[in-house]
Amino acid sequence: MKFLRVLKNENRISSETVQQAYYPEHKSDFSIKTVFSGHRTFQLGKRQLNLYPESFLVIKNGTSYSSEIDSSVPVNNLSISFSPSFLQDFDRVQKYNHADLLDEPFQDGDHPEFSFMETIYPFSGDMKYNIMHLKDHLEKGTPDDLLINEYLHHCLINYYKVYNKEVVDKSEKLNFLNSSTKVEILKRLTLAKEFIISNYNKGIDLEDIARHACLSVNHLLRTFKQAYGQSPHQFLIKTKIDRAKYFLRNTNYTINEIVEIIGFECPSSFIRLFKSMNNITPGKFRMYS
């Protein structure tokens, strides 16, 4: 299934299910990218990001990027692009008090660019719930632009919440007095997280992660733990287990096949670790999911 919906205010939603596709480099408006099966590879400058169903990607206005899908299974992906005027108005409403908004309800002048970090975020909770319902309405052909725009408004509200949890709160945990140092450290830690998520099954080591983040190994270890409450190794293992949960819920792959896909050494060690982290074996997890 493939569709493109362009609303009156120039917000755009597109979706398609493909196994092979290449999307040439282009610039877009502020956008949220998701996949519901398989994965999609994005190239943002020198950064190569693999997007899986457990995450969503935010791309800022004006960023040049290309992407590719090359999969043995159909990849269902959805992209939401927000018009600059809709985004600017939303951001203004979040930052200004009611009195100012009443005095200038339709202000079209210069406004600071919507501020955020362009990266991969967890796709769960209210964010996932809202987008799944939006997707359902779109696939049913709901003609009501008002309803669709309300869903897009809530996408941005939920993104604000995710951003505060994943970026603002994490930066506060870093033990640096200088705010610019905190921002730079978090940017580099974000590169480390992206690299782990995108290459979780490729046998990466600590030196690979540190090099990608432009941090020394020990600096990475110290600051990653401060920000995220876990080591890079623990984050890598959690990423593997989360991917395993997805395959257990949504595919018929055997345990041995899943172990190979996620890059574990052997089924027995995977089963022991899965049970220790979830208090249930992979087989029972699949049965009850």
Automatic annotation (TrEMBL):
Keyword Transcription: yes
One Pfam family here: HTH_18
Superkingdom per UniProt: Bacteria
KW Transcription regulation (keyword) present: yes
Residue intervals of the HTH araC/xylS-type domain: 190-288
InterPro entries for the chain: Homeodomain-like_sf (IPR009057), HTH_AraC (IPR018060)
Keyword annotations of the record: DNA-binding, Transcription, Transcription regulation
Coiled coil start-end: none
GO terms for MF: DNA-binding transcription factor activity; sequence-specific DNA binding
Protein name, as recorded: AraC-type DNA-binding protein
